[in-house]
Amino acid sequence: xxxxxxxxxxxxxxxxxxxxxxxxxxxxxxxxxxxxxxxxxxxxxxxxxxxxxxxxxxxxxxxxxxxxxxxxxxxxxxxxxxxxxxxxxxxxxxxxxxxxxxxxxxxxxxxxxxxxxxxxxxxxxxxxxxxxxxxxxxxxxxxxxxxxxxxxxxxxxxxxxxxxxxxxxxxxxxxxxxxxxxxxxxxxxxxxxxxxxxxxxxxxxxxxx
Length: 209
Known about the structure:
The protein is an all-alpha fold. 69% of the residues lie in helices and 0% in strands.
């Protein structure tokens, strides 16, 4: 994630941009907004706080994650909450995590499910899979299958595993599983690109420093 503009760069684009800068002997800049790349943690923190000051939900969520890593669960909760209120899908997922593990908040099943549902509606595939699991252990098989199929179409691998297990018990029909497998493969293929393959090869063969 670029702290200057809160945009996320995939490995393929990041590697391509690095090659461009090296080849053309350019200074390192953000591939989105072309701001100079910060060289210290202090500069990164300063940029992130500037983004937070203008109500950037991604920056708030990421700053909350940093607070969580430090064990500042209450601070993480506050940043996640504001990011979620501003529409950040992953912030809802992380709030559900806090409610599940009682980190900075009391355990609250209702709020946990609420934030999972908000994240799932926003397109978070891992969250959709978790909702399916909740439905499955609650013996609401039909709802569970629907959640798993939607998650699979978003590229979630674990949902495919769960659907494969459920078909053995007659909980999923072959047609629905076949459709889910095709949609899952299409979602996975959509994440591939020649640039990402080049980047993967580069990082795989890069010597240890």
